[in-house]
Amino acid sequence: xIAAFEGxxxxxDAASAAVEQMGLTWDATPLTELxxxxxxxxxxxxxxxxxVDGVTRTIEWPTTRLSVxxxxxxxxxxxxxxxxxxxxxxxxxxxxxxxxxLEHEVSTVLSLGALLADVPHTRPIQVTGSAxxxxxAERLNLTRSRYQGPTGISGVFQDACxxxxxxxxxxxASVPHYVSQAPSPKATLALLHRVEExxxxxxxxxxxxxxxxxxxxxxxxxxxEDEEISEYIRSLEEREEADEPLQPASGESIAAEFExxxxxxxxGRGDGPGREGPGKR
Length: 281
What we know:
globular; single chain; PSMG2_sf; alpha/beta; two-stranded antiparallel sheet; eight-stranded mixed beta sheet; 10 strands
């Protein structure tokens, strides 16, 4: 099960866009949705009116929807959870999701999130996270977050999974706070790479790599027109290099990662023609 929630947990829409990308490229089919009554303040997350065939009006309620992806080359199917952070009754909300997870014998839950951080857009997106045990954290080479403070529904749901005995891993992408508007394709791409590593399957990326390059180029161009912003970005780059210097990888680790990459993206398993990345919502 892979979950992402819009709102506080989703800077730049990076996490929700990652789930949308997986649903699109893995041909997800609807599984179920939660009854939104009792979880949402409809004056905050308002229902929307839509036209069907240009004539009939229908109401679409904000809620959390689940879909299933059947991956022929993977050991397990994937359930995608995409919703809005609820306003009320978070423990009951998590209990509903846990019930579905247990009914479908979910073996692992991946929670995706994105947060605003003092990081430069010119460097690889930092992805921190946590795991249910030390072995999994080491296997995924998780950079532990040192954050303490208020949490969102992603953190609460991950804790609920661990308490219920379901292994759970969270990935959080750091989105530059000075360019937080959606979309943030570079952060979405970083999260999808971590999903690939966790599941050891290929996630078709479509146009996302190109979108991420264009995003970085556009932000750099805008920043170059303002000396104060450019200086601030340079200070972030210097601080990041001083705080977390790059560690040279061993030949064995490079070879092992390259083998995993080839296994996920072998001949005939590329993104394929006609794949599109997630657009602006």
